[in-house]
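Aim 2 progress update. The chain analyzed this quarter is reproduced below.
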Amino acid sequence: MLVLTAAGSLPDAALARAEAAGGRLLRRLAPDAAELGGEVESAAAALAGLAVDANILPAAGRRKRLLVADMDSTIIGVECIDEIAAEAGVGAQVAAITERAMQGALDFEAALRERVALLAGLPEAALDRVCATRVRLNPGARRLVQTMNALGAVTALVSGGFTWFTERVAAEAGFGVHRANTLIIENGRLTGAVAAPILGRAAKRETLEALAAEAGLSPRDAVAVGDGANDAEMLRAAGLGVAFRAKPTLRSVADAVIDHADLTAVLSLQGIAEEERRG
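Predicted C-alpha cells:
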C-alpha cells in the first residue's frame, strides 16, 4: 500500500506520474491524500523531487487504537525550553544544546538538566508569556487528536518538555493523557532544577508500553509521532512510527515520514478518510 499526502491538496499531476510508473489509485482519502496499490515502489520512486510524502505501508492492521505524540516541534511548532530561554536571555546557549540533543549528539537527560540550570531565577510569569505569545498547535493537530478520540482511541501527549506546557497543550488539542517533566518552582521563580525521574528517550517508550497495557492493547496497536532523537525508542515500539518534520536520526527508524503534509497525514497513513474525521 502506497499512501500519498501533500500540503493543502494532492496534485493530479502527482497521481498521474505515480500511475504511469505502475501505481493504481485505490481511493482518495481526502483532498490532500490518496491510497495506491500496484507497483508501489516504482510509483513512490517516480515522485522523487515533488512536494509529496510517499509512504509504503502494510495494507493490513493500519488503523491504531492508541496515539502517542511528542509535543515540541511536533504537536506545537516550537521547542518550549528554547522559548523560555529567550525570555531568560540565554536563548542562543540553550538552543545550541537543544539542537545537539535532538540530533542525538548529547545524552538527553544531561542536556535537559544543563539547559534548565541556565533558567534559574526566571519568574514563573515568563512561562505564561511564552504560552500566550509563542505556543501554537501545528496545523492538523487538533483534528488528528479529536478524530482519534472519536474513533475510540486513547490519546496521549508524551514530552521530554514540561508539564507546565503539556497540561495546556493537551487541553487545547484534546489529548486524554499527558506526561512530561516537572520544573521545580519556588516563590514564583524557577530554581534551575527539574524533578526526578527525567522523562526522556527510554521513558517515552515505557510510557507508550504502559498506556497500551492499561488499555488492554499491544504496543503494535499504537501510532507514535515525533521529530527528534529522543522519540526513536517510542517510534520503534509502536506499530506505526511516524517521523514528522524530523531529524535524520529519527527518519532512519520511522515507518513513515511526513515532510510536506500537516498532521492529518497521520490519519491518512491509517486509512482514515475525510468522512470519518472530526474537528
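The chain has a mean pLDDT of 96. The radius of gyration is 19 Å. These observations will guide the mutagenesis experiments scheduled for the next reporting period.
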